[in-house]
């Protein structure tokens, strides 16, 4: 049976209409819909429209705020801190990216820190457009309300996957990096549980510290492992601590406050190479280094070296031309939401 494909524009329009029906104003609804669909276009399907039912539940319960804008906690030109007030995280992070780029034009670089943000889904969704405009953009996120990753050498969960994402200008396409400091994401763990599958490797440990590929141990006495696993996980552990310092630490709100909400602490850093040695000089260096990587002799001739984000951008281009397939189970959940809120159901492209 051929894959059922959907127009990205139709998916964005559907998600926007649904969020508006659920009570979200048009501006954050459109931004949220765009970010979720972008996740599916990049094939980050655990962080795309799969998140939409959960967002609607959060709106219905009042756990996601839908009115107003972030409050300014501090503004020192190149250093800004906002209280996101539990507003839609994809939207408030979009606002932070836009503000950081504008400030970087003036100061060379600028950081916007968000405290009390709602979930921000696929970090890669914030990278491509700024990088194509010439900004080196970083997005870091941590969730102070949960603990699923143990510190290296420990068994008690303390941290979370704590992702790091970066968009690096390069011709013809930017380099897009989106990695967790844990071996895999909680979204992939949850999907593996729901589908009765094992993890892709020994990426977790049980309550006694035994390595396992069973996703069911995570949150049930066991924990996810940092990048590097039990052997070299001190590296991922260090990066996780760095992310928490740059998000919760700079925002002044995190684990010490014992939050229980589903959300994030977020930091956006925008750098304008034009304010340093110059944009052309930056691109010359990055293009050269990228070409060296792509020209490296491959271990497997059938699988040449590719840059971070290269495959995701190719999949997005294909999906924009031919339509995007949704992970099994997601169309049915979207159809149920359409019926509940009285909007037209999705139709294949």
Topology:
Layout lengths: L7 H15 L3 H16 L10 H10 L9 E5 L3 E5 L5 H19 L1 E9 L10 H5 L3 E7 L21 E5 L6 E5 L6 H9 L9 E2 L5 E2 L10 E2 L4 H4 L1 H18 L12 E8 L7 H16 L15 H13 L7 H12 L8
Parallel strand pairs: 2-3
Antiparallel strand pairs: 1-2, 3-10, 4-5, 4-10, 5-6, 7-8, 7-9
Description:
The chain folds into 2 domains: 8-183 and 225-287 and 308-341, Malate/L-lactate/L-sulpholactate dehydrogenase, NADPH binding domain (Ribosomal Protein S8, Chain: A, domain 1, 2-Layer Sandwich), CATH 3.30.1370; 184-224, Wheat Germ Agglutinin (Isolectin 2), domain 1, CATH 3.30.60. The mean pLDDT is 97. The longest helix is centred in the N-terminal third of the chain and has 19 residues, at 89-107. Strand 1 (71-75) and strand 2 (79-83) form a beta hairpin. The chain has helices at residues 8-22, 26-41, 52-61, 89-107, 128-132, 186-194, 229-232, 234-251, 279-294, 310-322, 330-341, and strands at residues 71-75, 79-83, 109-117, 136-142, 164-168, 175-179, 204-205, 211-212, 223-224, 264-271. It contains 11 helices and 10 strands. With 349 residues, it is an alpha+beta fold. It starts with 7 loop residues before the first helix and ends in an 8-residue tail after the last helix. The strands form 2 sheets. The protein has a 7-stranded mixed β-sheet.
């Amino acid at each position: 049976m051929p894959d059922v494909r959907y127009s990205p524009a139709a998916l964005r329009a559907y998600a926007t209409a649904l969020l508006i029906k659920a009570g979200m104003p048009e501006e954050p609804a459109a931004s949220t819909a765009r970010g979720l669909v972008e996740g599916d276009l990049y094939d980050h399907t655990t962080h795309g429209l799969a998140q939409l039912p959960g967002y609607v539940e959060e709106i219905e319960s009042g756990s996601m705020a839908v009115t107003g804008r972030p409050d300014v906690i501090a503004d020192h030109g190149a250093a800004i801190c906002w209280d996101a007030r539990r507003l839609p995280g994809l939207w408030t992070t979009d606002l932070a990216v836009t503000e950081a780029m504008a400030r970087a034009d003036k100061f060379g670089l600028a950081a916007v820190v968000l405290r009390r943000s709602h979930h921000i889904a696929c970090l890669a969704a914030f990278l491509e457009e700024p990088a194509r405009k010439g900004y080196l953009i970083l997005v870091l996120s941590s969730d102070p309300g949960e603990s699923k990753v143990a510190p290296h050498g420990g068994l008690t969960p303390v941290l979370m996957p704590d992702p790091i994402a970066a968009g690096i200008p390069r011709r013809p396409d930017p380099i897009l990096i989106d990695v967790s400091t844990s071996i895999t994401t909680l979204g992939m763990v949850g999907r593996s549980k729901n589908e009765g599958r094992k993890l892709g490797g020994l990426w977790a440990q049980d309550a006694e510290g035994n390595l396992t590929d069973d996703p069911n141990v995570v949150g049930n006495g066991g924990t996810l492992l940092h990048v590097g696993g039990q052997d070299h996980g001190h590296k991922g552990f260090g990066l996780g601590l760095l992310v928490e310092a740059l998000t919760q630490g700079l925002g002044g709100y995190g684990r010490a406050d014992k939050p229980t909400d589903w959300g994030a602490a977020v930091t956006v850093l925008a750098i304008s190479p034009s304010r340093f040695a110059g944009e052309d000089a930056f691109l010359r260096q990055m293009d050269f280094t990228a070409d060296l990587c792509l020209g490296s002799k491959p271990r497997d001739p059938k699988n040449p070296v590719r840059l971070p984000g290269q495959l995701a951008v190719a999949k997005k281009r294909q999906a924009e031309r031919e339509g995007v397939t949704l992970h099994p189970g997601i169309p049915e959940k979207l159809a149920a939401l359409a019926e509940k809120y009285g909007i037209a159901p999705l139709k294949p492209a």
